[in-house]
């Protein structure tokens, strides 16, 4: 079977799960597509999952209420072994890329990380992935009775429901106790659309001028056009914005339909996080800013003058 | 405690990356210690300076001869000694973790520090895979850390925010921006570092095979429209941009 570990939050199946189902269908690997849903009170998620999978395995346990890398790795490994999985697909989220290597080691399986394309080549699985700050696309290959891969969010189209819903089965899991004690959690809530799901992102850099300008122009434009808000590392380091908004090598990787960069110079570390966006729009008063080299539409000008006009005009 | 820090060498972020044949060609490229690993090295030094009982800090690198330079940087920053496993073979992170685990065991390491993501592989797997090989817990994307005896407390980023943690050694910690500000090696320390031990090991003495084959590499730059709008009249520029986004790119309703 092809085992896909469902990603979900707030009682809803994540878009990344549907993307992984497409990756599984594309991969040409053998066996039914099996979604594994881990968590507590996940009945609704399991029903959503059944619409796109041949079967759904449900681990609904209090011990799975909180994600933990050791616990998740043990659960996924157990099911991969029992089901003799040929392929294990895990989301390329921060948590997915954290426990997937542990699954690969436990299964003594090769690991393909953060892949953007998958295809079967005989017994092997061939993949493409970005390297060197997303400046290079590499083709890699692994073979073996079982292969573990994480799938980069946004790289595959979300799967549509396939005919009849898959059967759901409750599973028993033998879980370890985590050795890490979590002493407090702070969830970064935003009323805006999450960066990973946003179709449009408005990002501000140091060129915006001040935290007040950021709120007025970057947030103002984002709210007007229903976009998510991003920030560069310089802006986060300066304390203007929370880390959760940072886009780039040390922040989030995004590929929205439109990425609007305001006062962003375009350092390579930033480009590695947003360079795959479908359309890049840049406004910066420095005509030499590297962001213009990757922009589809660019305006050389002052953010403080152009963005208010943009906000006003987009209201019409 | 004994700390093992992992050091990789990557192109300077501003350096041009080129591909020849089926792989990235680093000849003539300026190479530096991976910035994220540097946070790990710095944190090992700060744990010691902060009063934790740190007996030994070792830097480990696996790679070609020139990786020595990155190890010299770590030595000049203040690590006690270095181990270089010299090879031109390219090992994926999960395979490489086998070496890390063997070295950690041989050295009696109880804490491994490394970067959260390697800037050459764009991979986050080395810390997690090493932790699993050793049967240790791992905390990734850590931006706050302190030690009290054998207990580490800190904060790290997770999918939907961040959380405080407490863990007993042994453990693997991956570092990131915000954890610290790495120091620059001073000239006296660079001189002192020349006398520190830099041991060379053979890859052959470790039981490791690559699990992933590298078939090709391409620099794919997406062709961008590069359509520039005159910004002298902000009003006209804004309207022209909106028109293009609505009617040409079709990204706005």
UniProtKB/TrEMBL annotation, chain A:
InterPro entries: DHS-like_NAD/FAD-binding_dom, ETF_a/b_N, ETF_a/FixB, ETF_alpha_N, ETF_asu_C, Rossmann-like_a/b/a_fold. It comes from Deinococcus aerolatus. This is Electron transfer flavoprotein subunit alpha. Belongs to the ETF alpha-subunit/FixB family. It comes from the Bacteria. SUPFAM superfamilies: Adenine nucleotide alpha hydrolases-like, DHS-like NAD/FAD-binding domain. It holds the Pfam family ETF. Residues 2-182 form the Electron transfer flavoprotein alpha/beta-subunit N-terminal domain.
Automatic annotation (TrEMBL), chain B:
Residues 21-210 form the Electron transfer flavoprotein alpha/beta-subunit N-terminal domain. Gene3D superfamilies: HUPs. SMART domains: ETF (SM00893). InterPro entries: ETF_a/b_N (IPR014730), ETF_b (IPR012255), ETF_beta_N (IPR033948), Rossmann-like_a/b/a_fold (IPR014729). It comes from the Bacteria. Keywords: Electron transport, Transport. Belongs to the ETF beta-subunit/FixA family. This is Electron transfer flavoprotein subunit beta.
């Amino acid at each position: 079977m092809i085992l896909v570990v469902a990603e979900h939050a707030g009682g809803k199946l994540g878009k990344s799960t549907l993307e992984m189902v497409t990756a599984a269908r594309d991969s040409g690997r053998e066996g039914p597509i099996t979604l594994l849903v881990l968590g507590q009170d996940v009945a609704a998620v399991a029903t959503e999952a059944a619409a796109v999978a041949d079967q759904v395995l449900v681990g609904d346990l209090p011990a799975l209420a909180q994600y933990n890398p050791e616990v998740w790795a043990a659960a996924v490994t157990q099911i991969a072994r029992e089901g003799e999985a040929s392929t294990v697909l895990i989301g390329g989220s921060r948590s997915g890329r954290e426990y997937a290597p542990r699954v690969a080691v436990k299964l003594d399986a090769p690991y393909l990380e953060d892949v953007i394309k998958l295809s079967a080549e005989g017994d092997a699985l061939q993949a493409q992935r970005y390297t060197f700050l997303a400046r290079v696309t590499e083709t890699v290959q692994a073979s073996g009775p079982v292969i573990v891969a994480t799938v980069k969010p946004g790289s595959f189209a979300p799967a549509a429901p396939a005919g009849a819903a898959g059967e759901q089965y409750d599973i028993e899991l033998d879980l370890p106790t985590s050795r890490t004690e979590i002493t407090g959690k702070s969830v970064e809530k935003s009323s805006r659309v999450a960066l990973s799901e946003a179709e449009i992102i408005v990002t501000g850099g140091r060129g915006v001028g001040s935290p007040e300008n950021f709120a007025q122009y970057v947030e103002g434009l984002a709210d007007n056009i229903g976009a998510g808000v991003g920030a560069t590392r310089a802006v986060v380091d300066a304390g203007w914005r929370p880390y959760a908004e940072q886009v780039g090598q040390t922040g989030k990787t995004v590929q929205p339909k439109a990425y609007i960069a305001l006062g962003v110079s375009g350092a390579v570390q930033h480009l590695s996080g947003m360079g795959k966006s479908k359309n890049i729009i840049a406004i910066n008063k420095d005509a030499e800013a590297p962001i213009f080299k990757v922009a589809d539409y660019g305006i050389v000008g002052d953010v403080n003058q152009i963005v208010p006009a943009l906000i006003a005009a987009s209201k019409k | 405690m004994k700390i093992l820090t992992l050091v990789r060498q990557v192109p300077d972020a501003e350096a041009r990356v080129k591909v020849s044949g089926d792989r990235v060609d680093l000849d003539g490229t300026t190479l530096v210690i991976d910035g994220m690993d540097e946070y790990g090295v710095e944190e090992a030094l700060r744990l010691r300076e902060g009063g934790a009982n740190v007996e030994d800090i070792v830097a480990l690198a696996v790679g070609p001869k020139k990786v020595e330079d990155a190890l010299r940087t770590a030595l000049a920053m203040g690590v006690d000694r270095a181990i270089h496993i010299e090879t031109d073979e390219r090992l994926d992170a999960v395979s490489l973790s086998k070496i890390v685990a063997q070295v950690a065991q041989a050295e009696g390491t109880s804490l491994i520090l490394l970067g959260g993501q390697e800037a050459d592989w764009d991979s986050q797997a080395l810390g997690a895979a090493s932790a699993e090989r050793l049967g240790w817990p791992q905390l990734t994307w850590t931006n706050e850390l302190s030690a009290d005896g054998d207990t580490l407390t800190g904060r790290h980023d997770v999918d939907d925010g961040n959380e405080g943690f407490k863990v007993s050694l042994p453990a693997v910690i991956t570092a990131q921006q915000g954890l610290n500000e790495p120091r620059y090696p001073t000239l006296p320390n660079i001189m002192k570092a020349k006398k520190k031990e830099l041991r060379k090991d053979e890859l052959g003495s470790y039981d490791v095979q690559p699990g992933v084959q590298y078939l090709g590499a391409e620099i794919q730059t997406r062709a961008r429209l590069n359509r520039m709008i005159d910004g002298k009249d902000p009003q006209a520029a804004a309207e022209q941009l909106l028109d293009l986004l609505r009617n040409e790119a079709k990204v706005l309703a």
